[in-house]
Amino acid sequence: MHLLRTLLLAGLSSLAEASLQVVPGATWTTSNNEHLQAHGGGLIKVDGLYYLVGEDKTNGSAFQNVNCYSSPDLVQWTYVGALLTRGASGDLGPNRVVERPKVLFNKSTGKYVLYMHIDSSNYGDAKVGVATGDTVCGSYSYRGSFRPLSHQSRDMGLFADDDGTGYLLSEDRENGLRIMKLSADYLNVTESTYLWGDSIEAPALLKLNGRYYMFGSKLTGWDPNDNVYSTSTSLTSGWSAWATFADAGSNTYTSQTNFVLPVGSSAAIYLGDRWKSSNLMTSTYVWLPLTISGTSVKMANAESWVPNLSTTSSSASTAKPAETAYEGEAAKYGGQARSVSCSGCSGGTAAGYVGGPDAGTVTFSGIRSDAAAKSTIRIRYANGDSSPRYAGVRVNGAAAKKVAFLPTGGSVSASTLHVDLKAGSTNEVVIEGINGGWAPDIDRLIVPVS
Ligand SMILES: *[C@@H]1O[C@H](CO)[C@@H](O)[C@H](O)[C@H]1NC(C)=O
Ligand SMILES: *[C@@H]1O[C@H](CO)[C@@H](O)[C@H](O)[C@H]1NC(C)=O
Ligand SMILES: *[C@@H]1O[C@H](CO)[C@@H](O)[C@H](O)[C@H]1NC(C)=O
Ligand SMILES: *[C@@H]1O[C@H](CO)[C@@H](O)[C@H](O)[C@H]1NC(C)=O
């Protein structure tokens, strides 16, 4: 296991030319061929791998699973399994709310401790639940729920300070946003460390160079707002007034704070949720690098970006490579595939009738990459259905990879594909249906050149 993991990591890091990208708001297909279901989730790094623990919204808002995925690079995600799954009754029974799961590791006890918001379907319980596990992505034992120090607790986060002291971040609707100290074993809450008397939810706490940054959102339900941060060099006092960090009026690029990942000692990544309240399983992820300097935190929007997870990096992103776009309607059609009008697509046209009973295909040839590299291709598409469509995508003759495409309503979105490209202009991408199903309409491929 460890040998395999070492080889895997060595293999990945030797791909110096890798051009893997985070694409905010896109469909992220994971190893189980479905869109990533880890909403409201937390990240924890163990033995060189990132683990993302979040909510499975496949069947809507009621609790189904707390899922766990792993990745070496924050881009390619492997579905590992569920840490907790729905039971017959109780906190984890039918029609329950289990949100914002987060994990801390306690070195002394050797236990992974999972906290989550536990509630009834009308949000009247307002508690935290605690579970423990022996491995980060294995099964966890649920230990029960409580109101921390008897206060209401809805959106929550966790934070471990440099000295190992754990903290619960908790939205207490009656009083404000709290930081609360955890007991040494992390299983209980022992004291209230700080209280903002402001209505802020979705808390995430970051520490860089001895300074703390608390991020959060205003209270607008599933709808996004301009999220804010406050900073101090002490957890107990000196917190600055809340200020926005994304472009004002952008509603945090249509997202809500969920987690902030430090990268080394001077860089960090914002992990937000773009909730789709009408169909929660189609909610996506807005992850962007933060620019932090002293008390100042800024976040620019990006259609896509290349993470740099080097701990000595002063920025969590690397300059993006040049890209080439290949139009669906300019590609070669097979079966009954043909051009269709598509209002949000470039040129108002897309490749349609891909898949289906006549097995329509669309073949993009002559795709250029200046290096042999694992690269992220963005497939711009339209899917007017209310559930995902799927396509088989064959790159350079390899076996088809099943890719998911979330509903796009009347507009156009992207789905990501991480594939090995050859150096030169002879790469080929074929998109086809799966088992007679319809693939989405294909607007275009956007491919990194270098
Ligand atoms: C969703 O619901 C269907 C139908 O009840 C069930 O078969 C499936 O296991 C559920 N999936 C998840 C991930 O909850
Ligand atoms: C883990 O739990 C023990 C108590 O069992 C405690 O002494 C220790 O400080 C905790 N924290 C960490 C980070 O190990
Ligand atoms: C948790 O901590 C609270 C506050 O210190 C205390 O009243 C309670 O008894 C503790 N619960 C357990 C199970 O130790
Ligand atoms: C990532 O950051 C490190 C440290 O600053 C730097 O040496 C390296 O060149 C960066 N990687 C890329 C691909 O830019």
Characterise the protein shown here:
The protein is mainly beta and 450 residues long. The chain folds into two domains: 18-318, Glycosyl hydrolase domain, family 43 (Tachylectin-2, Chain A), CATH 2.115.10; 323-448, Jelly Rolls (Sandwich), CATH 2.60.120. 4% of the residues lie in helices and 48% in strands. It has two helices and 33 strands. A five-stranded antiparallel beta sheet has the order 24-27-32-29-30, with no helix packed on it. It is globular and about 65 Å long. The relative contact order is 0.12. It binds 2-acetamido-2-deoxy-beta-D-glucopyranose (NAG) (4 copies). Residues 106-109, 164, 184-185 line the site of one 2-acetamido-2-deoxy-beta-D-glucopyranose.
Brief rundown of the structure:
With 450 residues, the chain is mainly beta. Helix content is 4%, strand content 48%. The chain folds into 2 domains: 18-318, Tachylectin-2, Chain A; 323-448, Jelly Rolls (Sandwich).
Chain-wise SSE layout:
Elements: H1 2-14, E1 39-46, E2 49-55, E3 65-71, E4 78-85, E5 97-106, E6 111-119, E7 127-133, E8 141-146, E9 156-160, E10 166-172, E11 176-182, E12 189-196, E13 201-208, E14 211-217, E15 228-232, E16 243-244, H2 251-254, E17 256-263, E18 267-274, E19 284-293, E20 296-298, E21 306-307, E22 317-318, E23 323-327, E24 332-334, E25 338-341, E26 349-352, E27 361-369, E28 373-382, E29 389-395, E30 401-405, E31 413-421, E32 424-432, E33 441-448
Antiparallel strand pairs: 1-2, 2-3, 3-4, 5-6, 6-7, 7-8, 9-10, 10-11, 11-12, 13-14, 14-15, 15-16, 17-18, 18-19, 19-20, 21-22, 23-33, 24-27, 25-26, 27-32, 28-31, 28-33, 29-30, 29-32
